[in-house]
Design goal:
alpha+beta, rod-shaped, 49 residues, transmembrane helix, transmembrane, 2 strands, two-stranded antiparallel ribbon, membrane
Amino acid sequence: MSRNGLYAIVAVLAVAVIGFAIYTYQQQQAQPSLEVRIDQQGVSIDGNG
């Protein structure tokens, strides 16, 4: 296998990993979440859903 072919395979794999990371991050941000905090100021509830 030539070096150019090896570089092409590495580049394709790098793009795939970056694309999967971006997709995973977007899916994680889209999920509704709920955060409940109890501190000196009382109870606070934050949610994005």
